[in-house]
Amino acid sequence: METIPIRMDRRWLNEFEERMETDSGWSTWDRFRLALDAAEAQKVPDFDTLRSLSTLQGLTPLPHQVETARRVLGEMRGRAILADEVGLGKTIEAGLILKEYLVRGLVKNALILVPSSLVLQWSRELNRKFQIPAMAQKKAWMWDRYDILVASIDTAKREPHRSKVLSRHYDMLIVDEAHKLKNRRTQNYRFVNEIRKKYSLLLTATPVQNELSELYNLVTLLKPGQLGRQQAFSTHYIAGKRKPKNEEQLREEVRQVMIRNKRSDGHIHFTRRNVENVPISLYPEERALYEGITRFVKDQYHNSGPIKSLLSLIILQREVCSSRDAAFLTLFKLLKKGVTGQEELPPDVYRLVNLLRRVERQAKVEEAVIRVRSLKEKVIIFTEYRATQDVILRHLAAEGIIAVPYRGGFARNKKDWMMELFRNRAQVMVATEAGGEGINLQFCNHIINYDLPWNPMRVEQRIGRVHRLGQEKDVTIYNFATQNTIEEHILWLLHEKINMFRMVIGDLETILTEMGTEGDMEQSLMKIMLESEDDREVRRRLTDLGESFSEARKEAEIKKQEREALVDGTQPG
Amino acid sequence: MEPSQVKSFAERYLDAFGCRIIEQRPGLIQAELSVEADPDLVHRPFYWMYVEKMGLNPQTSTLTWVFDREEAPQGIPAERLSFGSPRFQQMLHSARKHGRFIRLYEDTPRPVRSRAGSKPYDPWLGVNYRISYLCDRKKEEILHFGIHLRTGEIIENFYSRIRDRNWNPRLPAHRHILPPLFTVAEAVGELEYNLQGYVEQQDMEWARDAKEQLNRELERLHAYYPEEWRMSDELHEEKKQRIRETVWQYHPRVEVEVVNAGLFYLDTPPV
């Protein structure tokens, strides 16, 4: 074979000779040895070992993540589609691969394109978990200033950013949510295609959503020609929209550029979820208030009285199940509305305020205190309402139980601080927010749903904060439900009809989409609650809703199996 | 690097760079950095610019490090120094930057009889090379060469052969250096020639593999894009770019850099 080019760096020689001439600037023996030891420590001794593993602080990647990184660097040589199912840590895999190339000095600059909502999260994770100095791209001047940038793909593809990006060479390009590149006629696809890059990772949990051609486009973007020309691909592999032919061969081709870990592979052990429903019976005063409000809501609905916003009506009913204080705030607003409108204050609102005043003890918060005390372990309590959050915190404090609040409105630092307090000092965290980044509470394994969101995605987000990769114990979910109220109906739907508390979020999202408009559960439930004449009707309509959920679930499952069959050889069951 | 190795490296660094150790316990070091070490380990360029402009006495940073998660003492704000921590990487970088070139005279502890006249030194040039074998992957090795500046004799592992000797940065009294017959530049030429021979003798399986991969990838591109005359300008440009990227990614090559180098004046030949 022909010889390999060798480049000898000789720039040092001038410096060396200069020192000889001036007889100055010599280093010391200690420092000379130190420098050599440093070089030894930083040396990359072989082609294959993952050097980055020993540099990670406070993160131990799971075996399947390490294996993925190994295959991408080795077999796939730095160009791959990472297509793990949701929740298996694609970000960790990508971070690990990037880190390895950085440690080896094979990557000096990198661009990470993500949906704008994930820019901050990505840059934080890369910094925190991998000590990769990634910056979130905000201003146009930043393109030239930083080596590792996380940017929103929608920003990057527009001027003045676009020409900046396209004028550079990137050692590595990472695209998250890469299924958005499935159509080669879109601006996104063409933009990513134009970027000059050496290594490239495309991340998506759904490499095929509807058609085989999506997979073709994705693979072609990564490695043009891997699946041949479009025409040849169609004749050779496509039998119908979602029906492939020559499957074995197709799979083999795809396997060379794509890695897909699945939950069912079993290399990840998820602990169990236990569910305990805690029925709460209201005190008579609370009961009276609930009945009063329910009647008020129904009256308003039927008479279309002065308060027209149906939303606030239903919210009032939900709030009163949560706490007196939560309902009070809304009632107070209704009252004020009346005053500013200079109308007669509705007498029934006054009546409600009076009922509210009579409530002194609240059964639910008392139950919460008892639970927390008897559990003796860390507990996170989720509520939908700020006012309720205050009530719970007050009662816990009165009993000498250390608890911290957590809200969406907190600044980043405060959120981190509260997390630290909860981890190290407090027994309880009372949170109004479950979504968003950063709350990872694997060290806690009790969740109290003090009240329930009507949107199943939010329920799942709550549980997902605790029941996730890294949780070592079984997780117990306590659902508080006041008896004979709408809360009980909701719990019945979520728990009995759709088995909410045992599912995983990826599936849920698809199912809700599959349900169409009905999939907007909050809307559907509100309608049912308002329109139904009595509990019997409520139950009947909830049963229907549950049925269509089950249907959608089956449908989603079939589609999923068809896709799986395409991308990783699982036979449709 | 294990925590104990990180710790001993940090100790040597602090010592070599004149930092003041305030507290030292198993698993913990607290030190006030020297003016030389501070800018390398603590990133505050504006401060140093300001100190210089105003001609002030600089206040250097005091850092506290722990090395092992288990041994870390409670209640003291400290950062963990491990192989992967950015601070330690800065320390490695700083060490390499400041330990590049030396000139040393062997210090032999025995009475020098003035009557015998001046005793001569043999001049040697020692160079530590880092060789990188590169394609889409990478492997490195460090070689320690030495060349006798009078005979041109080249020996491997020069560094480890002279590592345990004692050194003096100044030419001791009653000593002189035998005049070199090779200039440093000539000697370096010899070393590089020798190095090339070394590299060519290595197992080049990796390079053959990369070359084959490169050819396969290029073939794939040629098969994928239509014939030249059918392509639009845009597509033509795209193909050219893909080819450039592929070559960039895979082409095998070897890069040689110098870690550090020194003139060593020896009493006895290296063994």
From TrEMBL, chain A:
Q: Which GO terms describe its molecular function?
A: ATP binding; helicase activity; hydrolase activity
Q: Where is the composition biased (Basic and acidic residues)?
A: 552-566
Q: Which UniProt keywords apply?
A: ATP-binding, Helicase, Hydrolase, Nucleotide-binding
The UniProt record lists the keyword DNA damage: no
The residue ranges of the Helicase C-terminal domain are: 364-516
CDD domains, A to Z: DEXDc_RapA, SF2_C_SNF
Question: Has the keyword RNA-binding been applied to this entry?
Answer: no
Membrane-spanning ranges: none
- Start and end residues of each stretch annotated as Disordered: 552-573
Ranges for the Helicase ATP-binding domain? 71-225
| Matching Pfam families | Helicase_C, SNF2-rel_dom
PANTHER family recorded: SNF2/RAD54 HELICASE FAMILY (PTHR10799)
> Which protein, by its recorded name, is this?
Helicase-like protein
Taxonomic lineage of the native organism: Bacteria, Bacillati, Bacillota, Bacilli, Bacillales
Automatic annotation (TrEMBL), chain B:
**Pfam families per record:** YqhG
- Family annotation (InterPro entries): YqhG
Report the domain of life of the source organism. Answer: Bacteria
Protein name as it appears in the record: Uncharacterized protein YqhG
Taxonomy, top ranks, is: Bacteria, Bacillati, Bacillota, Bacilli, Bacillales
